[in-house]
Amino acid sequence: MALEPSADASDLLCNLAACEQLLTDLLNDEKLFRSDPVKQLRGLVTQLAVKLWKGKPQSEVPHGDRTRQTRPNCSDPEGTEGICEVKAAQFSRLLYTNPVCILSSCNERLQRNLMTISWLTPLDNQGRLMCSINKRRHSAAGVLHHKTFVLNVPPANLAETLLAIGACSGESVDKVKRFSAPLGGYCRPGWKSLTWPPEQPEDLPIFAVAGCIAHLVLQLEADVTAASGQDAHHVLVCKTLAAYVRCSHWDGKIFCPKDRQQPYLTFFGSQTFGVVLPK
Asked: Which residues contact 211 (CB under 8 A, 6 or more apart)?
């Protein structure tokens, strides 16, 4: 679809309907969107989205059920540095490969803690999952109290930090402070700015790890420990409220690293990790 050349702003406004139709066609046609001739247009659209975002208060930005969300810091038209907000129907895809995660939570006094977790099993395609947490873990009480927490998927270069997080207890160590530097600091899920403790009573008492490549906000739905016959572990059924992932690891359907990006980890046991890579 060709647009007529415009001499001034008035002419440009007359072409908005044609622009809207063109953008709609691009969004609905994945093959066309990813074609070489459209690459330059994708870059221009990204720049326009960034400009619009910067000119709009955060409270006015819609948070609908969309896959890709362009942030002010997303200057890469290929989407390798941007942030994607995952559709609800695709929440579980972030956990299909059973990635090693950092669980971030806080206790009833809003003291924050981190723990390494890998016992996670998706239950459906809408983001429900089952996780197992040792009852002796310092994080367990906070998860049960607030019933909300975040799963953060770290890149493979944080493997040693993951082992160090798992080797100490939040009861005696301020893990949030100790591991802040290697983890890249902290944020709200989706790499939004963080104020701690939360300023508004209605804000969820959650935080995320900035150096990770995906954030999943979870809510505890049911504690099925008694039915599981477990004595040493809490067995929890949770649902995903929201999920965000770096565009460098998400193509709209599959959670895996793009070319030359850090993979994420799976766990073999005995302090040994593997990495998840596309075939």
From this structure: 154, 155, 158, 182, 183, 184, 185
